[in-house]
Amino acid sequence: MKRTKTKLFLIASFLLCILIAACSKADKNELFQQKLNSIDSTIEDGNTQKALKSLSALRKKARFPVQYLSIAKRELQLHSPVQALQSMQTGLKKHPDDPMLKAALTHTLLQEDRIEDAAAIAEALLGTSYAGIGTEALIQADKIKQTYRTPVPFWQEGFRLTGEHIFLENAAAMLAHQGEIAQAAALRSRIAKDEALRSPYFWSCLAYDMGNFQPVLDDLVYSLAYADMAGLPEHNPKAFEYARRHLLLAADASAGLGDMDQARGFWQMYVDRYADSSSEVFYNLAMTAPTQEEKAEILIDCISQNPGYYPAVAQYVRACSAIEAAHSQKNPLDEYLQSKDFYSLEMEKSLFVSSAFTLSAEEVLESAMNADKDDIRFELEEFRYRYVQPKNYTRGNGEMWKILEAHPHNPLVKAYARWYFASSGDFNACFGIDKADNHYEDAFYDGIRRAVQGYSTAALKNFAEAEAESRYRIPSAVDQAYIYDARNEPDMAIKFFSRAAELVPDKRTKSKMLYESARIYAERNGIAEAIALLNQSLKLDSENHRANVLRQKLIADGSVNRNAGLDTFLRIEMNPDTNTGMEAGQNSTAINPR
């Protein structure tokens, strides 16, 4: 009986303690609210100092985040931000993870222009309902310091809250700066499809960098519309500038899609819209012209506008050289027909094309050198016109040394001279020129030197080094192919001839590389492989005589004599007529032992 009474007593005592504790909590909360109400009355009476003192004392009674915020709110109303900040910081010591206290503290620091302090705690608001306050703090800090440290998620949060495109654009710009182009471009999808882009050129640049060309074309209408809405450039200079750039980007995107007609259309639109169109646009129109006559006319327009624009000058002069070379190689039949005032269709076409070149190469070069006396490329272009194209090496060698003496330390002149002497077969002169302090260029010419001297292993090592530089990738591959062929290593020779065929841009050289691979297959009785490659070769260049002869022979008897007409010799294979101008190292130099 005593045990039962004892148990009942203990249980009753426990329940009483719980009840007292609950009442105590309720009493404390109620007491806090009563004191807060009393302070409100003091505030209404206008006794500010007493109210602030009471709020400071009440801070010790606060237990929950909302209570600290209630105190801080009244302190701010009484224009005491320092005391309010103290209340919030005290609350954070007890509740360090509370987002409301962090947000209130960040906001108050911003109001007090303590931007750096606000930014220091702003990142803790990411993922909360108050991330927008953190975004404002971080952006303000970046603005003051002129930095770009606001994390991408905060920019995205700014867009979510406001719908302003600038936040999303900044997020994309940050990602692009970090090398995350794909993620940056993908942010565009967050803009509603029925909403006009505010910065179409910006998003088009990202799409273009991703190789996604169609959006560039789709968004051009926005850039042009914004420029047209402005009316005059001075009303909105940025809109006009972005429209200019977007047009050129659209042309490049069209070229990327393989639609050169559309690309030309955009370049022509650019010329029509902007009277001060750049030389580059005219040059692009010229290089994609459907006929030689139109190409000549546009090049003349380009040169007339800018006599010192090197790419146009080089193209025009080289085209003149080609026409002069064609005229100097007239066959007797053409001369006889012309003497009788009779012209074949081919003769009429040639005459029509040449008539479009109304400026002489000499006057174009003279105007260019007068326009820019310091550009050594024009002097080299004149040298090429007078001595390289007509293969006048006897006089050219002396003139080349004069140019070298006049510009002994110019790396472009030294590189050009090495190329020239190598192409003319004067290897002693080529190797006598000082190194250009360009590792890859020096490695390439060291490879030629080793090959000429018969050190094929060392030459292969040099060419392998030179391959790392884009200018020497093609000639190095070709040279290695011929060396392996001369060393009777057919598998390696085929490998490098195939690589060269993939790399070379022009069809004639590509056809030649395929022929070389086919020849090696044929020598090893790989008749089927050889014929397949020869078919590809002739498809690229139907006038490839050696490919045609070998194909007929293989089809006729299914065999080939390795030594028939394939005497080993050393020569330099050059392609002087590149579209981009005679820059040092731009032309393919290949050691060909066959």
Helix content: over 70%
Q: CATH H-level name of one domain... which superfamily?
A: Tetratricopeptide repeat domain
What is the structural class?
A: mainly alpha
**How would you sum up the major sheet?**
2 strands, antiparallel
- How many separate helices? 31
- Tell me the strand order in the biggest sheet: 1-2
- In CATH, the architecture of one domain is Alpha Horseshoe
Question: Segments where pLDDT lies below 50 for 5+ residues?
Answer: 5-24, 333-338, 340-353, 561-594
Please count the beta strands (DSSP E, at least 2 residues each). 2
Q: CATH class of one domain, please?
A: Mainly Alpha
Q: On the 0-100 scale, what is the average pLDDT? A: 85
How far apart are the termini? 122 Å
Mass-distribution shape: elongated
What's the gyration radius in Å?
Answer: 40 Å
Proportion of residues in extended strands? under 5%
General description of the model:
With 594 residues, the protein is mainly alpha-helical. Among the domains are: 196-277, no CATH class; 434-592, Tetratricopeptide repeat domain (Serine Threonine Protein Phosphatase 5, Tetratricopeptide repeat, Alpha Horseshoe). Helices cover 72% and strands 1% of the residues. It has helices spanning 2-44, 48-58, 65-77, 81-94, 99-111, 115-122, 131-145, 152-162, 165-177, 181-186, 200-209, 214-230, 237-256, 260-273, 279-287, 292-305, 310-328, 332-339, 345-356, 361-371, 376-388, 393-406, 411-424, 427-432, 439-453, 456-466, 470-486, 490-503, 507-523, 527-540, 545-557; strands at residues 571-573, 590-592. Strands 1-2 form a two-stranded antiparallel ribbon. Helix 2 runs antiparallel to helix 3 (65-77), helix 21 runs parallel beside helix 23 and helix 29 runs antiparallel to helix 30 (527-540). The longest helix has 43 residues, at 2-44. The radius of gyration is 40 Å and the shape is elongated.
